[in-house]
Amino acid sequence: MLSSLVAWFSAPAQWSASTGIPARLLQHLGYTALAVLVGAVIAVPLGLYIGHTGRGRLLVVGLANGLRALPELGVLVLFVLLIGLGLTPVVLALMLLAIPPLLAGTYSGISGVDPAAVDAARGIGMTESQILFQVELPNALPLMVAGLRTAVLQVVATATIAAFVSLGGLGRYIVDGQAQRDFTQMAGGAILVALLAIVLEVALQGLQRAVTPGTRRQEPARTDTVTAGG
Q1: What is the C-alpha to C-alpha distance for residues 220 and 224, in angstroms, rounded to an integer?
Q2: Which of 28, 127, 160, 178 could hold 169 in an S-S bridge, CB 3.0 to 4.6 Å?
Q3: Residues 219, 178 contacting (CB under 8 angstroms)
Q4: 1 secondary structure, DSSP code
């Protein structure tokens, strides 16, 4: 299997054709980015409102748990039956996967801001919108990015379902390989999805560290010791 994978990855057609790895990778990233963006348009404003006002907290829990329980392939089939083939049902299905972590991260970040800071902002006459965007939002960014990390990783791993409705992406290698009983192609597609998820995880970890106040590289532990009487 290892030699077959090396031959599959090193084949020139895998890197130059319109159905090669670079093209499939861009398609996969496109589905992921679009689904996360649409999910963020819904989840972030809702999380900001609930976190700032404290209203609708049960909605966060219920919506997040309910959407997480949905079977993505079944939801995709339902949207295809209702809308038809195309990009829209795929984005809608993946969007439902992105909303829970984005909503939970935004709500937790905003509601977790130190109440003393909020009270101080009100005390100097800041409006509610100023408090939200100038005090709460900057402090909430680390948890919001953590929610984004979770959403991106879940969506990028599930975006393979696009291949089930004749779209592209890295899932094509898995679906086409299964249809052709080409296990090397299936393994290659799975490896590519896993590598993409790892790269995105590392990048988003760096972003989360960048927006977290007080984070810095840990200094290496000192190896020199002082002995008694020395």
Answers
A1: 12
A2: 28
A3: no
A4: -
Q: How confident is the model at residue 223 (pLDDT cuts 50, 70, 90)?
A: very low
Q: Are 208 and 147 in contact (CB under 8 A)?
A: no
> 81-115 burial by CB neighbour count: b if 16+ within 10 A, else e?
eeeeeeeebbbbbbbbbbbbbbbbbbbbbbbebee
Q: Which fold has domain 23-211?
A: MetI-like fold (1.10.3720)
- The span from the CA of 25 to the CA of 168, in Å, is 9
Q: What is the CA radius of gyration of the chain?
A: 23
Q: Are 113 and 135 in contact (CB under 8 A)?
A: yes
Q: Which amino acid makes up residue 39?
A: G
Sequence-separated (6 or more) residues with CB below 8 Å from residue 162: 27, 28, 31, 90, 168, 169, 171
In this structure, the dihedral spanned by the alpha carbons of residues 181, 70, 94 and 75, taken in order and rounded to 10 degrees, is 70
Q: What is the pTM of this model?
A: 0.86
**Gap between the Cα atoms of 190 and 128, Å rounded:** 48
Could you give the CA distance from residue 159 to residue 161 in angstroms, rounded to a whole number?
A: 5
Q: Give the pLDDT of residue 146.
A: 94
Give the pLDDT confidence score for residue 215 in this predicted structure: 58
Residue corresponding to tokens 């919506």? 63
Q: Nearest to residue 208, comparing CAs of 107, 140, 134?
A: 140
